[in-house]
Amino acid sequence: MSKNEQDKLLIIPLGGMGEIGKNMTVIQYGKEILLIDSGLMFPEEEMLGIDIVIPDITYLIENKEYIKGILITHGHEDHIGALPYVLQQINAPLYGTKLTLGLVEGKLKETRLNKKNISMNVVKPPTTINIGSFAVDFIRVNHSIPDAVGFAIHTPVGIICHTGDFKLDQTPVNGEKADLHKFAELGSKGVLALLSDSTNAEREGYTMSEKVVGHTIEDIFKTVTGRIIVATFASNIHRIQQIFDAAYKNDRKVAVVGRSMVNVVNIALDLGYLTIPKSLLMDLDELNRLPKEKVVIITTGSQGEPMSALTRMAMSEHKKVEIMPEDTVLISASPIPGNEKFIARTIDHLFKKGANVIYEAISGVHVSGHASQEELKLMLNLVRPKFFIPVHGEYRHLVHHSHLAMEVGIPSENIFIVENGRILEFTKDSCKMAGRVTAGKVLVDGLGVGDVGNIVLRDRKQLSQDGILIVVVAIDKETGEVVSGPDIISRGFVYVRESEELMEQAREKVKQALRKCQEENISEWSTIKSQVREHLGKLLFEQTRRRPMILPIIMEV
C-alpha cells in the first residue's frame, strides 16, 4: 500500500442506507478498520418464511485481520441484532456502554455463542479510548433507550462524527441530557464529516420529551377503574420505568409478560437502569388473584406481531391472560412501517372483546426517540462539518435531511447521499465516491443463514399464490411406454374432487407429452420433464389463468 493510499480515509456503509434497519458502517484508514454497529432488519412482506435480515459482511470477512474493534451506539435490535452472526466469523473486541453490552450479552446467550472468546469493553461517556490509529470519543445522546451514544472518531485525516440514533430531550427521564457541549467543542475544532440520524427528517419542529408520555400515562392511570394492560417496545426502559412509577402512585401491582420484555426488564434491573420497589413487581399468577383495579400488565406486542403476547391475548390464545370488557389497553408505540395492518387487526380484536384501547393515533401515549427537523438543524450547526452524510433512514429521509443541511449552509457538493456498499474516500480537503464493495441482504431462515436467496423466495411466492401440481408416472425402461399413471396430486391449486374434468384433461395432456417424447426417441429425463411441464402448464393457464408449480416425478420400472 502506497503512502498516498494510506493518507486516505474510507467510509463504507454496509447497511442502514435507504432503509430502516441493519445498520453497519465501516471506518477505514490504511490497514485499520473500525465497525460502527451490527444490526438486523425485520423481513418485508414478500420475504415469505424469513425470520430476519442481516447485512452482507463479505467485505469484513475479506478484511477481518484489519478490524480493530466494533463500536456500538445503543442496544436496539437494528444496531446489535446481527452481532451473533457477525461474531461467528469475525473476532473483534466490542466497545459500548454498560446497558448496551448487557443486552448484547443477553443476545449471545440466546444463540449459545461462546462469550469467553469475545472481548467486551464497557465505556462510560464522556470517555475517549484509543484503538489503533483512532481515538474515539463516546458522547452521550438521548434516545428511546438509556445509554445511547454517538462517536467522534479522530483519524489522521480528520474527525468523523457519528450521532447514532438521537433526539435532544431537555427533560430526560433519567436526567442525563445529550452532551451538546461536546458536539459544539468538536465543531470549533473542525469536523471533517458528520453522519447523522435521518429517521424523522420529514417531521417539522421538535420531538417531544419522553416525560410527556409519563404525564399522559399517569393521567390515564388515575382515571381508569379496571385492569390496565400496556404494550410497548421491550427496549424502551424509560417508558417501562414511567409505567412502574404510575402504577406505584396509583397503588397498583405490576406483572411483566412476553419473553423479550421479561429478558430486558431483568437485565435493566440487574444493571441498575430500572428502579422498582420489591413489592411492586409480581408474578402473573399472583397478580391474577388481585382485584382488577389493582392490576397493571406490561407486555410485548406493540407492533401487532402474530406471536406476541398482546396479539395472543386479543385472539384468546394466551394461556394466562384473557381480555375482558372493562380492561384498558394502552399501545404505547408507533407503527414501524409495514406493521400498520397487524396493529390495526390487533386493535380491532381488542375492541371486539370490549376493551378500551388507547393508541398513538388518538392520544399522547408515545413519542419518538429520533430528532425532528429543528434538532437535526441544531446538530448540523453545532458540529459544522465540512462534509455531510445523512444515515439511518429510507431514501426519502436521506434526501429531506440533505435539504436541511443545505438550509443551514452546507454546500450541496459537500453532501453525499450514498447507498449500501458505496465507498466514500476522504482526504483532509476532499471527498469523493470511489467504487463499491459487496453489500446487500443476507436472509436468515431458522438455522439457515444466507441459504435462502431470490430463487427460493420466487418459488415460495409461486407456491403461495398458485400452488403445486405433482405428476407421477412410471415408464418401462425398455420400451418407454407408460406402465402406470399419470397420477396428479394438487396442493394449493384446485381441490381435486371438485375438478375431476380438469384433472382428466391434465392427465391426457401428460400422456400426449410422453407420446411425443417416445415418437421423437427422447430419453433424457430432464427433456421429458420439461415437455410435461410445458404441455401441462399451457393447458392449466388456458383453463384457470393460474401458473402452479409443476413437479414431474418419472420412475423407471
Automatic annotation (TrEMBL):
Pfam families: Lactamase_B, RMMBL, RNase_J_b_CASP, RNase_J_C. Zn(2+) 2 binds at D78, H79. The keyword rRNA processing applies. InterPro entries: Metallo-B-lactamas, RibonucZ/Hydroxyglut_hydro, RMMBL, RNase_J, RNase_J_2, RNase_J_b_CASP, RNase_J_bac, RNase_J_C. It is an enzyme of class 3 (hydrolase). Its cofactor is Zn(2+); Ca(2+). Ca(2+) binds at G49, D51, D445. Its EC number is 3.1.-.-. Keywords: Calcium, Coiled coil, Cytoplasm, Endonuclease, Exonuclease, Hydrolase, Metal-binding, Nuclease, RNA-binding, rRNA processing, Zinc. One of its GO terms (molecular function) is RNA endonuclease activity. CDD domains: RNaseJ_MBL-fold. Zn(2+) 1 binds at H74, H76, H143, D165, H392. SMART domains: Lactamase_B. One of its GO terms (cellular component) is cytoplasm. Binds 2 Zn(2+) ions per subunit. It is not clear if Zn(2+) or Mg(2+) is physiologically important. Binds 1 Ca(2+) cation per subunit. Seen in 1 crystal structure, it is not clear if it is physiologically important. Belongs to the metallo-beta-lactamase superfamily. RNA-metabolizing metallo-beta-lactamase-like family. Bacterial RNase J subfamily. PANTHER family: RIBONUCLEASE J (PTHR43694). This is Ribonuclease J.
